[in-house]
């Protein structure tokens, strides 16, 4: 009885580790996507600001 309990806890911990890796990978993917969006927005804002400042020179 103790062995079956020990075996189930190790399999559940390995399943949790696999789920943790999937979660980490998903979070990393979302962070990468958000960084790309922020980069694009920053470039657009800089371009618009430059056009506004240097527009009618």
UniProtKB/TrEMBL annotation:
It is found in: Cell membrane. This is Uncharacterized protein LOC120282133. Belongs to the DVL/RTFL small polypeptides family. Residues 1-22 are annotated as: Disordered. It is a single-pass membrane protein. One of its GO terms (cellular component) is plasma membrane. Pfam families: DVL. GO terms for biological process: negative regulation of cell population proliferation; shoot system development. InterPro entries: DVL, DVL_RTFL_regulatory. Coiled coil: none annotated. Keywords: Cell membrane, Developmental protein, Membrane, Transmembrane, Transmembrane helix.
């Amino acid at each position: 009885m103790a062995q079956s309990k020990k075996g189930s806890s190790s399999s559940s911990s390995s399943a949790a580790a696999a789920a943790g890796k999937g979660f980490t990978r998903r979070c990393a993917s979302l962070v990468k996507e958000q960084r790309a969006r922020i980069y694009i927005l920053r470039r657009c804002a800089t371009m618009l600001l430059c056009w506004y400042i240097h527009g009618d020179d």
